[in-house]
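Subject: complex prediction, re-run

Hi both,

The earlier run crashed halfway through, so I resubmitted it with identical inputs.
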Amino acid sequence: MRYSAFRLFLEGLQGQSGWKPVWRDAAPQASYDYVIVGGGGHGLATAHYLAKVYKKARIAVLEKGWIGGGNVGRNTTIIRSNYLLDGNEPLYEFSLKLWEGLEQDLNYNAMVSQRGILNLCHSDVQRDAYRRRGNAMILNGADAELLDQDQVREMAPFLDFENARFPIKGGLLQRRGGTVRHDAVAWGYARSADSHGVDIIQNCEVTGFRIENGAIRGLETGRGYIGTKKIGVAVAGSSSRVMAMAGLRLPIESHVLQAFVSEGLKPLIPGVITFGAGHFYISQSDKGGLVFGGDIDGYNSYAQRGNLPVVVDVLEGGMALMPMIGRARLLRMWGGIMDMSMDGSPVIDRTPIDGLYFNGGWCYGGFKATPASGYAFAHLLATDMPHETATQLRLDRFRTGALIDEKGAGAQPNLH
Amino acid sequence: MSQKNRLVGGQIDRSRPLSFAFDGKNYEGYAGDTLASALLANDVRLMGRSFKYHRPRGVFSAGSEEPNALVELRSGARQEPNTRATMTELYDGLTAMSQNRFPSLRFDMLAFNDALSSFLSAGFYYKTFMWPPAFWEKLYEPAIRRAAGLGRLSGKEDPDSYDKGFLHCDLLIIGSGPSGLAAALTAGRAGAEVILAEEDVVFGGRLLAEQNLLTEQCGNEWVSDVIGELSSLPNVRLMTRTTIFGQYDHGIFGAVERVSDHLPEPPADKPRQILWRIYAKRALLAAGATERPITFENNDRPGVMLAGAMRAYANRWAVTASTDIAIFTNNDDGHRTAWDLDAKGVNIAAVIDSRMDTPSSTEFEVLSGAQILDSHGRLGLRSVKVRLKDGSTREISCGALGLSGGWNPNVHLACHKRGRPVWNETISTFVPASSGDHLLRIAGAAAGIFSTHGALHSGAEEAVKALNDLDVSAHVPELPEAEDAPVKITPFWYVKSGKGRAWLDLQNDVTVKDVQLAHQEGFRSVEHMKRYTTLGMATDQGKTANVGALALLAELEGKTITEIGTTIFRPPYTPVSMGTFAGRSRGKDFRPYRLTPSHKWAAEQGAVFVEAGNWLRAQWFPTQGETHWRQSVDREVLAVRKSVGACDVTTLGKIDVQGADAAEFLNHIYCNGFAKLPVGKVRYGLMLREDGLAMDDGTAARLAEDHFVVTTTTANAVPVFRHMEFYRQCLWPGLDVQLISTTEAWAQFAVAGPNARKLLQKVIDPAYDISNEAFPYMACGEITVCGDLRARLFRISFSGELAYEIAVPTRYGDALIRRLMEAGKEFDITPYGTEALGVLRIEKGHAAGNELNGQSTAAMLGMGRMVSQKKDSIGRVLAGRPYLQREDDYRLVGLKPVNSKETILAGAHLMTAGDTVNAANDQGWVTSAAYSPHVGSSIALAFLKNGEARHGGMIRIVSPLDNLDIEGEVTSPHFIDPEGDRLRV
Amino acid sequence: MIINHPLLGPRDSQEFVYLGDASLIDRPNAMAETALDDFHDYLYLRDNPAGSHKELWFHEQGDRSWLVVTRDVTTHEITDVELASDYAKRRGRDR
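This time it finished cleanly. Structure:
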């Protein structure tokens, strides 16, 4: 069912009675050509591109709970392609371009809003690093601008310029960055995948892989055995648990990241702003809530909830950066499980098991990558070759030393 | 001034009238009022507008669950949006404005949305605003953003202060109704350390809002007796205006105390609010319950409210929303409201009870088996349309309607650690799961024990159990006689009738139809329904909305409420001001300052300071006539190269390494060899992480066989110490070695320049020979200065000049810099700051933070051969990975612009001339750049692919960000004295 | 969270810095022929279990002890805390 202004008008007149389910509630079939494990943003996007771009059929997405219930439904909605390293930047820039055409591609309004992302710097060393990064972005075809203090002040006069412990020296601006209505991404991909014949199967937990002679034959689920020769796993925080069923250990730890939203307020903050001298970033949703976050709690966790020290740390940063938010109220805090990789960058690759493909290690940056991650994963599943924007996102890079370590933090996931 | 709806009695102080203004109009209330009760007393029912349809709304509750009566409280920088009128204590001169309306509360142009509501169903925005694509950011979104949001922040800095504190107790009691007070009495008498926290202004909970809960005593009196006793106990801390907003791990609770919100502004010596972190060995949740409404068409008009809230207004604040009220209930509790208000002389138009079997009354009409179909009244309720038992309908005039659909225990805090409540069929409500956390017990209405007798006894008994867990003996005290009525309820959620809208979530305008549409479109899990409709996502977090919607979803799915389940309960219990979390950590106090030992002296010299982590360091020392920083820095650099300069380098990390195995330990920690370093010698050391990349560099000085002093970079002082302790404790616990950080213990100064020795000879006690022969380059030793003051001397150089670092105990740092400056006068000694330090080290080609950024290998830094293959050191194995050993990898080089007038920028990238400027052709980047007064042009350090082989070649230096595109020459990174002769003179 | 330090008693986890899986104590033999593979597995691969987890915490704002904490990472419940040096010695580490 295509959405259009006319259709909306018509349904308004007839009491909305004609809308059909956004996706079918499919029951698992005995076998598929492709099975995507994980009905999150990345899994659903993979199914969409696999069906629509790579024209594959007999595809299922298996979701343990309800689709979009993981990090795509629990993040701070930011999109950007302001990465430094050549291993990352092409993929994120490809993603940003896909975001820019997403509504038309999906016929679903995910509210892609390019209001800009501004990373503030507070020292010469930081500005030098931003210049290197901004130039790398431009070299990769992305947009970037380096702002001085006056330009930052013009954009965001409400920042603390007078009394700051770490004065704002300038910032790196990407105007094409912004935010997206996160839940709608999952629903939009699900709707499109479904319309291309993909079976989206909820409440279907994978309990084991059937592997014969080093090759995938199928998988066991809570709803019975499903035969398939190609499985793409995109389960974020559950990566280690799922891949352990295939006997694989990953360069990944699961950590908790908290995020926060305030009560609704009239428009206050133009785009996304990140603090460079503390852990704090913020944007304002179309509904008016200030959406913000900071650092991960720092310890392994599958609990999907965090603790007070990080809440305090984040809001100390917030008040230091923009002391006008003191009287706004924090409405809700939540936590998600991050698949923190050992160098802070993701993996989209084959595994030693034939027919088993892995997409994960997105750390806390997976949301913005959703379209490109899905596209590149679909490409890999369909062609057995890495997508041109994901050639470095290999599992064996830790063995060869071709690390993609944006922060230079080393093999310590909680520092990425 | 009239308070038309003020009743007799109540707990307000009529001797203290207070004046206040709402939307610019002046009113009067009494001390003890809330803004909501005072407005109701003045017959103001219209208090706000809803989020989406901008429907007129009045106060719905009498507590923190309020969805409707949100105002902008105060004005100017103290303006506080979305403030619940029900939680706002009245003070004299209070001003409040209605919000989310334009131009006025009565005439809101955005109420146009309401007329369009048939097109603005749940999730309509996902289906439209897509054509043409470019219009979203330009047209649709700005319009939506302006219409959305609720109240306005001032945009000005919050002028109030906040504070943080930590509290510890045996038992934290959350809530002070009958169960909380009984628990506090029990635990207080047992001698336990008790905290009793109450979000309200006063203790008592529902005891203040109800009549006749206690049979032989007035509820108020018992409350004041108990509080009187508790306040006499030193082991009990009583906290009102304190909301426990979250339960965290291991018995840690977050609380916010609103210290000054009931005052026009905080007193000079008081914060506005305090964030308490409460460490409780045990906690008792006695947070009571929240009433839920019954849903019917147009159930959102001003005047429609919870029946229990009506009672609270009447009994506690002596206020009624109208002189004619009706009640719609599905349980016996709703009838209480009618009795209480009837007793106060309010006309009860009717009690409409959906049950067939209802209590009867001689005082007012009870319509059993009846339902409300609709209501009327644009800006305030006028009448309700009732369908009677026999199917006929009747219009009943009333100015207010009390809704009672049963009570939901306030289980939130019991569920913050991801527990889910369970549905109890008998009392038709969610109660906390019985297999709860042993740290948190639950009593009274929060546990689904709704009678006062039950609440009192469960409070006391749970307190006894909690204390017994802690081996404290406690006993249930004598408790007052109290009503023990059973819960009589027949679930009834919403009236099924015509085509109109019936609200579930009042603030976010989520109606029964919206939930039905969501279900029709496949949003059938409770989380999908919530997210698609936005139910429960408003400032009240759906406290009065969620359970009704779950019941509806259960009906649509043909499942039980238990099967449907709830969404996740997340902190905070009620919204908390963001400034409270930050406390004092804002502005200049965001992080503490670390000051160097020479800070006071440097400030006297007029130094300009710069942040380096938490340190504040002198950046340069302007002298008279210098108007640009470059003038000062160039002068400082040249002075060092020409004569002598001094710089405070205390911020560099210093780690004392002692023990018989100290040398062996360092031999493992550094990639280069340390086992054979002689006593009295310093060696440069490169430390790798286990992944083989450079972590930090510094020096290690061997002061004795079993004693080294290691230095680190300023930024890595803490991580390096942690790293070394990890290897000491976790990998080689058998080594005889001890570490201690002495960064703060020693004040250390670099004394650099050709005259450095001559200067130091004037300061160092004559017993110590520091001639070039006796104390050559890379020598170190323990010495005395200024007459027997112990000190350490290292002949090391960051600048490339003859240089020393001299260290004295920190408390003598200020004296030493003054002595050095005094003694150095004859050499024109020049203090230099971090800028000159940076220029000097770039000229010398030393790596610093920009090069040691965690992404560099030893080989990139030109130190590949330093990694000893003869021993096992941290990082050696993985540094050998093929990608890290490739021949054409980046190498540190120097750069000079071909045209010496041009400036190289750090962060510029390098391209081969003639190549297209893109990522594929990227040859490297500039890490550090400076103007070199020695070279007489801009110079830079850079990482260049295969750079070692490209010295003398040309490279294009581009920074598209700055429109920079210049030609540069690749050089050795050593711009001065590559042979190191100056170091050794 | 609260970590019951074996020497100092209960301390807020905020005083500590987290490193990760206590398997980092089991550093392979750097001189072995398989060292490159062994170190890859040691440094990069993790069990990352959803359950009981032995992990390293450093009491940075305290006595500088490294501790091995046994914690359920699904509930955050801590069942055991010991000095990492004791644990390491038991695992055969010496010098």
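Chain B has a mean pLDDT of 96.

- K.
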